[in-house]
Structure formats: C-alpha cells, structure tokens
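This week, study the protein below.
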Amino acid sequence: RPDALVKGLLGREAVRIVSSRMMGDAVCKLVYRNQDGTLGEQLLFRSSEADLELLSTGRKWSFQGSGDLFRLVSEAARIELAYLFDPYVAVSSSGIDPLPHQISAVYEHMLPRQPMRFLLADDPGAGKTIMAGLLIKELLIRGELERCLIVAPGSLTEQWQDELEEKFELHFELLSRDLIRATGLANPFEQRLLLIAPMDMLSRDEELQHRLLQAPEWDLLVCDESHRMSAHYFAREVKRTRRYEMGKRVGSHARNLLLMTATPHNGKEAEGGSRKRLNVGFALMTLQRRLASSPFAIQRSLERRRERLERRLEEERLPGAAFRQEMERAMARRIHPHYVQDFFIAAFRRLGGKVHPREKGRYEISHVPPLLLDRNQQIGLGLPLQPRYERICFERELCFLRSPQALTFIRIHY
C-alpha cells in the first residue's frame, strides 16, 4: 500500500512505499522514498519477500489513484449489472426482433419461475427456439446460468447450434462420438458448459447417461420435441420407453427444466375421428336452422356475430398497445450503444490495443493486446479472440454490409 514503511529493500534502512505495480504474478515494481527524501525504484521478486519486514501498513484508503481508471472500472460494473434496470437486456444484446408472444413467454412466465419446470407448447413456426435462446442468454447475463444442456433430435442439433450462434452469440458444442473419444477418460459433460446432445444417443447409451449424472448439476435443461419422450398407455398398462426413462433421469439432474413441443398430446385416432364427425354434424345443423329462418333473422344473427368479433378484436388490440408502451419504456432504460462504444474504446486502448475508425459507426482493430488474448484463453467460453478485426460495430443496424463480407462480433470479458 502507498505510505507503508518497509525494511529490507536498502539493507536495514526503512523506506516508505510511494507506489507499487505488479508485473505478472512473480514480480512487483516498487517506487520508494528513503530517509533522505530521495526517490528510488526496484523490482521485487517473490523469492525476496522473506527478507522484507513490514513496519507499518500505511493508509488503508487514499485518493491518489487514477480517476480515468476508476471511471472505466465503474462503467464495467454498470454494464455488468445492466439487467437490474434493463428488463429486456437479452433482447437489446441479440440480433433478433422478438414478437410479443415470445417476450411474454420468457419474461412474464419463465423467468419469474426459478427453479422452473415449464412446458412450452406452441404451434410450429411460433419461434420456440428464439424463446429458449432469450431465456438462456438472459440467465447468462444475470449470472444465474453457467451450465446448459440442450437435448434435441439428431436432425435438429446442428440447426440449434447455428441459430444460437447466429442470433444470440451463444457458442454450444455438439455431443458426438468424436468429441467423446477426444475427451478420453475425462467426463465430456463436466468439461463442456454449453452442450447440445442428440436425444437418441443419450437414450440408447446407459453408460453415457451415467457419466451425465456424475457431472455437476445443469443450471438449465432444454428438451426439444419433448413429446417423443412420452410414455404410452396400452392395454391398461403404461409403457415407458427409453426416451422417457432418459428424460426422467436427466430432468432430475437439472435445476431448471424447459420442455418444448408443438404437439403436447397426439390423442387417439378414433377419438379424433369422432370429434371431427361431431363438429361437422353441429355445423350442418346450424346451417339448416339458418336457412330455415327469415332473411331478417339471418341478418340479425350476422350483425351480432360481427359485434362479437369487433369486441374481440378491440380486446386483442389493447394488450398490443400496452406491450408497445412497455417496450418503449424498456428501450429508454437500456444502456445505449454509444455508452458501450465509449467504454470499449477507452478500455481497449488503455490495455494496449489499437482501434481506428472506418465507416460511420464501424471501427478496425489492428492489434489485440496479449493480455486480452491470454484472458480469453483462460475463460475458454465462446469463440477465441483473433489478433485483429477488420470491422466491429456497436449498433445492430450497422452490423450488415452491402457486400457479402461476413462480420465477426467480439465479446468483452471483464
């Protein structure tokens, strides 16, 4: 600490520390003042610590630090806690424009339920993958998710991987035989934090399920096409399939469980046919009554139906208007891109990086400092940082160029 009194740097003479700066893990650069008031500088190694004697610890607090560095650190903390005042921070930081029903499902029904057991049964094409991606990214930003497993049919695993990477910048690995062999004696479910596993590969391999249960508990388990894991009722007996048993085991090893399907209940063919005949018969009976009535009665019936439909339409419009107002308020509270841009450029240059402006709103990174490259390798999540980038941008509207050149987005770890 500054102003500490130390003996052992200059023989038995006590010197007062002016400043100290670590240079790696084993070397510290000290600036000190001796008893004559002369300033000196010395590199102190870990092996010399035993020769030092601390006479006084110095001031616990001082105001001699860098104001610019304090501002950068406080801005980093503010961005890290963005979810506290931006209720839709995952929407703001993803490359999607979600629909109202998708936001309602994630932010009104899923997130408040922690721990969660949730069945998302929606029509095909309703965007269930987007809802799952929003949930995963929101939990990651809030620090409530570190390990996530997605179980999907083998034909959909690559589609899941591509959509999560493209729309949410979430880098999931695919569980395959090659990955298991490359892991060796280690547990692939323990080493991989974000993983997509084929449903049939898990259900047919008891040893693989055993290794999954030996790994730490998953923060979130997502099961796509979960109706394939259902049991069957036949001859007054429940037939439990391998997929059902696998889902039961894996689901008990996760804090949050999300089941996704477009067909939550397939029913029986006979019941479906009788229901269709009943609907057709009811329609014919209603039509016969209409035709037997007078033209005035038919007109009044149609007017009443029209009034009911208009009231229903007005009721549907009101939640839509309230949703738009809520989204506008959320967009006003979010961290705007220019704040993130100013913070990133200042922090990146302070760490030794070189960034230059290109087109309006876009920048070029000609040099990524080794400190960031080493830190990214230690974290081991997402795509590895590259030594340079031709273009980066901070606004979603500027992410697409007219030329087919692909853009690479980088993630800041702090």
User: Anything to note?
Assistant: The longest helix spans residues 295-333.
